[in-house]
Amino acid sequence: MFKKILIANRGEIALRVIRTCREMGIKTVAVYSKADAESLHVRFADEAVCIGPNASSESYLKIPSIIAAAEITNADAIHPGYGFLSENSKFSKICQENGIKFIGALPEQIDGMGDKASAKKTMKDAGVPTIPGSEGLLKDLDDAISIAKKIGYPVIMKATAGGGGKGMRMCTNEKDIKTAWESARKEAKAAFGNDGMYLEKFIVEPRHIEIQVAGDQQGKACHLSERDCSVQRRHQKLVEETPSPFMTKELRKKMGDAAIKATKAVRYEGVGTVEFLVDKDRNFYFMEMNTRIQVEHTITEEVINYDLVKEQIKIAAGIPISGKNYEPVGHAIQCRINAEDPMNDFRPSPGKITQYHEPGGHGIRIDTHVYAGYTIPPYYDSMIAKLITVAQTREEAITKMERALGEYIIEGVKTTIPFHQKLMQHPKFRDGKITTNFLDEWDFKKELMT
Ligand code: MV4
């Protein structure tokens, strides 16, 4: 087992990793930017190294500084958390070359999944359902037009290097294809330095349902059930829950099997997530595979009663997994509490938290790095806490969430708490009738004013 793990991250996920390390008897090293000198991850780690100024590009993304911090502290592994360098194949490779175990995917796995068109081909070849569309990249505009005609409109053109909706265009006719071919390619070139595009049938009003998986160094793989992440705004998840209200035992078996096939196809080592789009008839299609611990891993932990960070560390150390699949017990919901103003386009609201009181009681979990008097810096993402409720049924988990949101006091900055309170009351949410289009159609600002 590792003796000392460096955590190449900040905020709640850095704390999350430190906590598991402490329970496992592993020493920890925090790295931090100037802006984070007063952060809890710095205080709770056994050692801390300042790696640079405020900007992420000069600190949490600065590979040489992080490797240097690992070498001077004698860390034998690095946990990258999510975001930052967690899916950076170069970083994974440099760790490998320096004899430091990267607790995440191998460089070739990151690259293989990062190119969406080739990931799709890998999955199709492995027998995982994929969305009908072009075989690999589009050759030119004529190619796009003829494939669109063949699969039938509406279609969607996507950047192979894409993610988060960038370089993605829905097309309902040939004219849209022409426009998309110019604008989406330009956008992709600017954002990723890669303008490779592919085309697929547009799935109308899908659900985003992902399967948590684990694979070990011995080639075994298992699934740990699903998370429904259909409540999103501009590709930012706001609420996640498990089990999915749309799930059936039969569908879980089918999606679980497909996710295991996906995991084995790339000989994945570690915990990962296979994202699917699910249509109204419960057809499901591979979308992406994430090779990191995700923000929403918490809800899975609550319904399978298992520490996923511990699992990551064990797999990285070469310990085999049991290989059994997990069924969820009970229901868990997570609301992301962001320092953002829902009345003003979710504009970030950094600053000092003047008053802070957390909800508590049975079935409540809060993962956060903030406290009364803490100043949220403007340089990083605006998520300040994850509020998770766990209960036997979905109804009880929602009731508990309403109760917890009502108790949560955060003053000095605007937060997404009022948004979540309205969402928990929405009849469509209460019925579990949520697709990825839901937030576009709901005028929550009007409700927030009352
Ligand atoms: C789609 C789609 C409909 N049909 N693909 C959005 C992010 C990127 N990873 C894939 N995305 C989508 N791909 C086809 N063929 C709709 C979306 C989509 C979406 C997917 C999941 C969660 C939220 C979304 C919001 C808008 C569009």
Bin the helical content. Answer: 25-40%
Shape: globular
- Major sheet size, sense and barrel closure: 8 strands, antiparallel
CATH superfamily of the largest domain: ATP-grasp fold, B domain
CATH architecture verdict of the largest domain = 2-Layer Sandwich
Work out the radius of gyration: 22 Å
- Overall mean pLDDT stands at 97
Q: In the residues, how many domains can be counted?
A: 3
Q: What would CATH call the class of the largest domain?
A: Alpha Beta
Unreliable spans are: none
Determine the strand fraction and express it as a percent band. 25-35%
Which structural class best describes the helix and strand composition? alpha+beta
Describe the strand arrangement of the main beta sheet, using strand numbers.
13-12-9-10-11-14-21-19
Count the DSSP helices.
16
CATH topology-level fold name of the largest domain: D-amino Acid Aminotransferase, Chain A, domain 1
- Catalogue the ligands: ligand MV4
